[in-house]
Design a protein that fits this description.
300 residues; alpha/beta
Amino acid sequence: MSTGTGSRGPRRTRPRWAAAWSGTWQALAGPLLAALRLVLPPTCAGCGRWDTVLCAGCRELLRGPALPVHADAAVGLDVRSVALYAGPVRALVLRWKNGAREDLAEVLAEVGREAGRQWARSLGATTALVGQGPLLVVPAPSGRARRLRGRLVAADLADAVAQGAARGWCPPAPAAVLSVDLLRRRRGPAHQAGASARGRRRNRAVPPRVLAPVEGAAVLLVDDVVTTGATLGACARALEAAGARVLGALTVAATPPPGGPRGATLPPAVPVPGEQTAGAGGAGRERQGQEHRRRYVTRP
C-alpha cells in the first residue's frame, strides 16, 4: 500500500488487490442480481416499494417537460432536464446506469421519447430551425470501461430522444432524425461522477474527438445527468469547432446546486400551445413518413 503527502495531509491509495476484487465483483454482480430477481418480487427502483419496477409516485417524478436548468460550465447552451437528481430519481438513475436494474431500460426510454417529442414541439417551426439536413441527436461520450461493458446509457437515451423528436416534428412533413454516437473521449478520468466542481471544469478543457464530418448539421446533445455542464459544454465546443450548430441539450436529471434544498423542484412548465397532456392520444399524434435510425460511427 502506498501513501502520499500534499498540502492537505497524507493521502492513501487503494492496494492493487482491492482494485482487482472490485472488478471481479462487478463482473459477478450482474448474474447474481438477475438470479435473485427470478426468485424475489421486484422492488421500486426509486423508493424500494415491493412488487413493482417503478411505483406511481416515482414515475410521476419523471413526467412532465424538460425544463431549462443553469449549468455554469455550459454557458450559452440551452440545457434542459426532466427531473431533479435527488431522492428516488437519483436512486433509480444510478441503478439504471450501473446495470443493477435492466428492467428500467424501457422506463427511461419512454422518458427520453417524451422529452424529445416535447423538445421538438417547443421549437415551433422545427424544419425552419434545423434546416434541410437531418437533426443529429448526439449522446455524450462514454468512457472506455463503460463501452467494454456495453453500458452505453447515453447512446440508448439518445435513441429514445431521436424517436420522440421525430414524432414531435412540426410542421408535419417527412424528415430525418438520426441518433449518432460520434464523440469519443481523448483522455482523463473514466467518468465525471464523484468529481468536484473544480475537477469537472478541469476535465472539460479536453474536448472529445468528433469522428465524422458534421459541418452545417444541427445537433441536439443528450446525457443522463447534468451537474456543472462540464461534459455537455465540452461536447458543444467540439461540435461547433467542427462546423455543427448545437441547438441545445436534454438530460434526464439535473443535480441540485450545492447547499440548495434537496427537496427542491424544477420551475413550473410553460405549456406548449396546442399541446395535450402526456399520454392523451399519443399514438394518434405520431407522424407518418418520418424517419429515425441509429447510425454508429465505428472509426477508432
